Amino acid sequence: AMLRGACVNHGGRAVTLTAPNGIAQQNVIKGALKSAGLQPNDVDFLEAHGTGTALGDPIEVAALKAVFAKSRRDAGVSPLAIGAVKTHIGHLEGAAGMAGVLK
């Protein structure tokens, strides 16, 4: 695997303090793709935040679908493979991102 780009944002304007902001998630995914010089159908695997919550996971999956589904379908490529290391080892808080990269 190769890290080609990155993007950071904040989804603070959401329904509640702990509710993810789906639009902000879409924007950060698009920003990371742009930074990497990639199109959605160039990505083969995505390591999701995937906290395993009833609120967060559907919002994250909807954001991923909004960014990747149509482009991949139109290009005739297979659906995006998604993983989430937290389901195996739990949430490592500050080290959670690194666990996903190492996976």
TrEMBL record:
<dbReference type="GO" id="GO:0004312">
    <property type="term" value="F:fatty acid synthase activity"/>
</dbReference>
<keyword id="KW-0596">Phosphopantetheine</keyword>
<dbReference type="Pfam" id="PF02801">
    <property type="entry name" value="Ketoacyl-synt_C"/>
</dbReference>
<keyword id="KW-0597">Phosphoprotein</keyword>
<feature type="domain" description="Ketosynthase family 3 (KS3)">
    <location>
        <begin position="1"/>
        <end position="103"/>
    </location>
</feature>
<protein>
    <recommendedName>
        <fullName>Ketosynthase family 3 (KS3) domain-containing protein</fullName>
    </recommendedName>
</protein>
<dbReference type="InterPro" id="IPR020841">
    <property type="entry name" value="PKS_Beta-ketoAc_synthase_dom"/>
</dbReference>
<dbReference type="InterPro" id="IPR050091">
    <property type="entry name" value="PKS_NRPS_Biosynth_Enz"/>
</dbReference>
<dbReference type="GO" id="GO:0006633">
    <property type="term" value="P:fatty acid biosynthetic process"/>
</dbReference>
<dbReference type="InterPro" id="IPR014031">
    <property type="entry name" value="Ketoacyl_synth_C"/>
</dbReference>
<dbReference type="InterPro" id="IPR016039">
    <property type="entry name" value="Thiolase-like"/>
</dbReference>
